[in-house]
Amino acid sequence: MTSMRLLSIVLAVVTLGAVSSGCVVRVSNTDSAAGATATDPVDPARPKALSARLPDAADEGEEETDEQAWQSIRAALERPGDLRDGVLTFVVPRADLEVTVRGNDVPVAAGIASEFRFYRCSCGMMNVIGQFVVADYEANDVLDALRESHIEIASVGPFLIHERPRLMLVRFLGENKRGGALAKALRTGLSWTGEERMAPQRIDPLK
């Protein structure tokens, strides 16, 4: 009996015994083993390097100070806001709308405006509460923008009675470790309202 045949018989016996005991045996020569990639014992087809938990975005970076938060929020919303008693407030009038009630004009200063209020929660997170005043045809797009950024919707309802155009009030609450992330979500919501909504949209040909 040749040495090669004897080796084949030995390997067959070892493999049979390993399979019956629930083990998985991989036989490779020295050259291929040297260049092999370690595998995940749970999913052998998946490299171990990929089975480790990927860091969350919130895990990265240092704690944000209030001053850094205010600065990033102002930059994202492109407005200075009004900081009083630890609350940074933004009022965005809907000057683009010509609102009437029973045919009579309603001035924008009467409260036809979106409002956002940012503050630091005692838990350490940056919070925002507020409302969007939107035309009825803008509401769904604004809601989608908020939900995509995990901002919770408190209520959606009519803003007035007998008004034209029909206005909706979208109230919301959001929190994040980064104030700028919240502000960017609201900025996206604003882009679906008023004149900016009607502006030509840039199309990415790669999407």
Summary tags:
about 30% helix; six-stranded antiparallel beta sheet; three-stranded antiparallel beta sheet; globular; about 210 residues; 7 helices; Alpha-Beta Plaits; alpha+beta
Integer average pLDDT: 79
Structural class: alpha+beta
Biggest sheet, in brief?
6 strands, antiparallel
The number of helical runs is: 7
CATH topology of the largest domain: Alpha-Beta Plaits
Could you characterize what this model shows?
Helix content is 32%, strand content 25%. The protein is α+β, with helices and mostly antiparallel strands and 207 residues long. It has two domains: 3-51, no CATH class; 66-198, Alpha-Beta Plaits, CATH 3.30.70. Strands 1-2-5-6-9-7 form a six-stranded antiparallel β-sheet. A three-stranded antiparallel β-sheet has the order 4-3-8, with no helix packed on it. The protein is globular and about 55 Å long. The model is unreliable at 18-60 (pLDDT under 50).
What order do the helices and strands come in, and which of them pair?
Blueprint: H1 3-20, H2 30-34, H3 48-51, H4 66-77, E1 82-84, E2 87-93, E3 100-101, E4 104-105, E5 113-120, E6 126-135, H5 139-148, E7 152-158, E8 163-164, E9 167-176, H6 179-190, H7 194-198
Antiparallel strand pairs: 1-2, 2-5, 3-4, 3-8, 5-6, 6-9, 7-9
